[in-house]
Amino acid sequence: MATAASIPTALEALREDIARLAAPARRRRILPFGVEPLDAALPGGGLALGAVHEICEGGIDAWRAPLAALFAAGILARLKGPVLWCLHSRDLFAPALARVGLHPDRVIYCETFKDAEVLPAMEEGLRHRGLAGVVGELGRLPLTPSRRLQLAAESSGVVALVLRRSGAERDENNAAFSRWRIAPVASADEADPGLGRARWQVELLRCRGAEARSFVLEACDAKGCLAVSASVGDRSRPAAGSLRASA
């Protein structure tokens, strides 16, 4: 039970947390996707670095999250430095990451199979400014741990990507800057299905300072870049590799 003496201390700690969350956002670096409709939908014109982003997957293979992992790898392929990848299951296929531009030599694997161990490993990694990013595979991302990750990411400027491998259908109340869902889309070439570049439905489910949107895009190429599908273009809807600084 809180005492009268402890209340001012708790309020002051809360004010400090709010100040730390608000202040870095004014000078946060941005990584554009290079896809005009997608970048235009995001505050600052791209993915905010020094922040936590939650990625889940739709479809029958959602529990393994292969497309979510490739989406994360494509982002990190366009950043410089090593990557800390905290494994939730020992099924990450390094050659697949290499195909979207994230060479295995850049990846440091932290093998731990419990959320309770993944979260502190991610937080420790986020304190190292030399990393390109930190990936963590989690079943859940509760509010308090997500706030700790967000504060650590803002302190170092390192991006944190949380892959939700289970329970992804639940949109939890947490401090993640944005939440994405990646799902497969049928081949554009009906005559020769599966021969062209893979396509994804990339959904921005929520993001600070932006509306929910959905895009049908060509999957990451060998440099980690997405592209607008030539056959369908942008299907954005309202909700029912260079860096730049965000203003």
**How many extended strands?**
12
Helix/strand order:
HEHEEHEHEHEHEEEEEE
Helix content: 25-40%
Q: What CATH architecture label applies?
A: 3-Layer(aba) Sandwich
Distance between the termini: 42 Å
Task: Indicate the CATH topology.
Answer: Rossmann fold
CATH class: Alpha Beta
- Give me the secondary-structure category: alpha/beta
Subunit organisation of the chains: single chain
The domain tally reads 1
Mean pLDDT: 85
Strand content: 15-25%
Name the CATH superfamily assignment: P-loop containing nucleotide triphosphate hydrolases
Choose one word for the global shape. globular
Helical segment tally?
6
- Biggest β-sheet description: 9 strands, mixed
**How many whole angstroms does the radius of gyration measure?**
18 Å
> Low-confidence runs (pLDDT<50, min 5 residues)?
233-240
Note down, in words, how this protein is organized:
It is a single chain. The chain has helices at 6-22, 36-41, 66-77, 94-99, 115-125, 143-156; strands at residues 29-31, 47-48, 52-57, 83-87, 107-111, 133-138, 159-164, 178-185, 199-207, 213-218, 227-228, 244-245. With 247 residues, the chain is of the alpha/beta class. The chain has a single domain (28-245), classed as P-loop containing nucleotide triphosphate hydrolases (Rossmann fold, 3-Layer(aba) Sandwich). It has a nine-stranded mixed beta sheet with strand order 5-4-6-7-3-8-9-10-11, with helices on both faces. A hairpin with a 5-residue loop joins strand 9 and strand 10. Helix 5 (115-125) packs parallel to helix 6 (143-156).
